[in-house]
Amino acid sequence: MMKKYDTLADCVGRTPLIRLQRVAAHTQATVLAKLEGDNPAGSVKDRPAFNMIAQAEQRGEIRPGDNLIEATSGNTGIALAMVAAMKGYTLTLLMPKNATQERKDAMAAYGAVLIETDSMEAARDQALAMQAQGLGKVLDQFNNPDNKQAHYLTTGPEIWAQTEGRVTHFVSSMGTTGTITGVAKYLKEQNPAVQIIGLQPDAESSIAGIRRWPAEYMPGIFEADLVDQTLDVNQKDAEKFMREMAREEGVFAGVSSGAAAMVAVDIARQNPGAVVVCIICDRGDRYLSTGLFGRAD
């Protein structure tokens, strides 16, 4: 019998969960990092990208050959571009012009059309306007339940299994809020005592991939009652910890991941015996052109 070979879809998820050793050595707790950069398109957004397209296909809303439209800060766009290329869709992405060149180039490599906008809010508005003009189907990661469902079905169960049910705290930066909402829902169904900590930039900071949303743009998939604590993080502090992670742990990731690990270590310091899990949402090579990794702390 011929061997069944994996497709890209089979490679999404089941990412490693590793213990941070040196940056958390001063704590009496365990800090674990979920390495989502190991997904085939390089980020945690591979999970909702596959699920949003697969579920829309099952409902008969789209079929190969259609044009898909999405507003993105980068990682979702890259993931959707990969899935669209694999499944035979065309894709138009709207993204703030201050996104890194690596992200723009990755989208183009998969064949996506990129339209730059002045802000994330403008990108979301323009995507919906294009859909209204009949130019394609907006997947709408900000309000699409299939986004958080991907994490409820995969990320949450993986964390629970990998920690053997011992996880006490879960830390995630918040953008679309799909990751934190889906994971929180699953973990709290297993143990309501698990603490869920969400991160947003403080008022002076701008961190790629995460936002302080104005009320009118708050993602519709967000379930505030699942998040026990929302913390502000400072951009410079997150950047410094991101560099520390690369140099002292060998974990090469972006700024929002640096923020999540930084807060996870602080929570571990305050809670001896805890098992703290944080999301490392992508890889640091998407930020090399910013010069952030060459800076002195």
UniProtKB/TrEMBL annotation:
<dbReference type="Pfam" id="PF00291">
    <property type="entry name" value="PALP"/>
</dbReference>
<dbReference type="InterPro" id="IPR001216">
    <property type="entry name" value="P-phosphate_BS"/>
</dbReference>
<feature type="domain" description="Tryptophan synthase beta chain-like PALP">
    <location>
        <begin position="10"/>
        <end position="282"/>
    </location>
</feature>
<keyword id="KW-0808">Transferase</keyword>
<dbReference type="InterPro" id="IPR001926">
    <property type="entry name" value="TrpB-like_PALP"/>
</dbReference>
<dbReference type="InterPro" id="IPR050214">
    <property type="entry name" value="Cys_Synth/Cystath_Beta-Synth"/>
</dbReference>
<keyword id="KW-0198">Cysteine biosynthesis</keyword>
<comment type="similarity">
    <text>Belongs to the cysteine synthase/cystathionine beta-synthase family.</text>
</comment>
<keyword id="KW-0663">Pyridoxal phosphate</keyword>
<protein>
    <recommendedName>
        <fullName>Cysteine synthase</fullName>
        <ecNumber>2.5.1.47</ecNumber>
    </recommendedName>
</protein>
<dbReference type="InterPro" id="IPR005858">
    <property type="entry name" value="CysM"/>
</dbReference>
<dbReference type="InterPro" id="IPR005856">
    <property type="entry name" value="Cys_synth"/>
</dbReference>
<dbReference type="InterPro" id="IPR036052">
    <property type="entry name" value="TrpB-like_PALP_sf"/>
</dbReference>
<dbReference type="GO" id="GO:0004124">
    <property type="term" value="F:cysteine synthase activity"/>
</dbReference>
<keyword id="KW-0028">Amino-acid biosynthesis</keyword>
<comment type="pathway">
    <text>Amino-acid biosynthesis; L-cysteine biosynthesis; L-cysteine from L-serine: step 2/2.</text>
</comment>
